[in-house]
Amino acid sequence: MALTLPPRRPARLSPVLPVLAVVALLALPVAPGGEGGAGPADALSALVVVFCAVRLLRARRRPLTRTAALLLGLPVAGLAPAALHAVSSDAGITGFGRYLQVFVLVPAAVLLLVRDRADFRLLAWSLVALAGWQGAVGVHQYVTGTGASYQGQDIRAVGTFGVSDVMGMATVVSFGLVCAVGLALGRAPARQRTLAACCALALLVPLALSFSRGAWIATVVTLTVQLVLAGPRRALGVAAAAVAAGVVLVGGVGVGTAMLQERIDSITRVTDAPDQSVTDRYTMWAAATDMWRDRPLTGVGLKGFPEYRDGHASLALSSGSDTEGAGAAFRRQPLLSPHNMYLLVLSEQGLIGLLCLAGCWLALLVCAVRGLWRTRAAGGQGLDCALVACGLLVWQLVDFAYADIGGPATVLTAVSFGLVTWWALAGADQVSPTPASRPSRRPVSRPSRRPAG
Fold first, then answer.
1. End-to-end alpha-carbon separation of the chain, Å?
2. pLDDT, tens only, 386-431
3. Per the domain annotation, does 51 fall within a domain?
4. Integer Cα distance of 196 and 228 in angstroms
């Protein structure tokens, strides 16, 4: 009797597709002159959280492990008191929701929706693709003089985010660059590693044209950490390639040589001869510290920094920053945050909030690095995921010293924290099957069913 093969099950769609849709929405242009608040991607991220909750209810399984629930619930302990004594109930509710979105709900949804390392790599490549698109728009803005205003010229690359979020493109490109370097340093096939390396080199151009000193510093620190974690041999080879690419792009092609050199030199003059933007930042840092001294444990409440700023800032603080270009008219942008995430949390949530939030990040970093070492000891399978996760977290922690959350690109920060959380709490424990341990696909001989004789 002929044996019939069982019907092949249809391929199941990956549950991370809604997260990919959130990343894709960030490619849409922001309305010129907008306030730079929540956008379509933020609304879709809320639907992703709902989708994840419905999926869990249908599966009837426990959503999070005890460790994951503890780490993701830790920021709530600092947010709740700060929301209760906010300057207004509306400010408390909106601030509480924003922090929950970025540091709790969306990361938890990504943690639960990512099934394996293939899903992780899919999201990482989506960040690279988004960075490529935003970077291409930014380079076009620089070449055609249609970017944001910088030193009287409309050449600053801001991508589709406009002048309302000048750091948006720099953040997106930095995330894509970190992911590309991590994928290039992994154990993937040579073709994929080559493609990732080419993407990383290409993304250096729009990152330079963003003129974002904070993003530059965070990226240099992160790439150095990734190279060290990948091993000394690869570190030397990639470092040599990066130096050669920098010489060709800046020295040979002349990509913004004069202005880039002036911007780079200004990093070393932030204490001797700071410009007005640096002076404003120092003044707001001092104001945030004074707010914390007044209320050391709980801070002034969520979204309370703008209300208390003038009472603690010195006369050196300007009324705002000038924004123009990229399709928007001239306007005076008010300074509503200290542009330092740690000081923002310290001033609005106090020591309790900072310890809870920073404690969560530090625990994730320790778990991610431990997972990387376990992966290397097991033969390097999944090393690319480890380098991407560690790189994203290191970049964010360094960049938080010069920036804070806000703007349409903030939802991408939530997605990156989700990738980090998955690797730190689940991904490092998954073991990729080796060729020797994979089950054989040879047909198993079956005994004949014919009667004897």
1. 18
2. 999 999 999 999 999 988 898 888 999 999 999 999 999 987 776 5
3. yes
4. 18
Tokens 């601030």, residue located: 95
**Residue 324: strand, helix, or coil:** strand
Average pLDDT over residues 99-123: 94
Is 273 part of any domain?
yes
CA distance to 60, 65, 100, 422, per residue, from 426 (Å): 19, 10, 21, 5
Rounded to whole angstroms, how far apart are CA atoms 116 and 426? 9
Half-sphere exposure of 174 (CA within 13 A, CB side): 34
* Contact residues for 157 (Cβ-Cβ < 8 A; gap 6+): 135, 137, 138, 139, 141, 142, 147, 148, 169, 206, 209, 210, 211
Q: Which of 386, 382, 389 is nearest to 420 (CA)?
A: 389
> If you average pLDDT over every residue of the chain, what do you get?
83
Q: Is the pTM of this model over 0.85?
A: yes
Q: Residue by residue, what is the 3-state secondary structure of 28-89?
A: CCCCCCCCCCCCHHHHHHHHHHHHHHHHHHHHCCCCCCHHHHHHHHHHHHHHHHHHHCCCCH
- In a domain, residue 187? The reply is yes
Give the pLDDT confidence of 271-317 residue by residue, as tens digits: 555 667 778 888 899 999 999 999 999 899 999 998 888 888 777 67
Each residue's pLDDT tens digit, 212-233: 888 999 999 999 999 999 877 7
Residue among 193, 172, 440, 152 nearest 324 (CA): 152
If one counts the domains in the chain, the total is 1
**What are the backbone dihedrals phi and psi of residue 15, each rounded to the nearest 5 degrees, phi first?**
-70, -10
In a domain, 72, yes or no: yes
Beta-carbon contacts of 67 under 8 Å, excluding residues fewer than 6 positions away, are: 425
**Domain housing 100:** 39-429
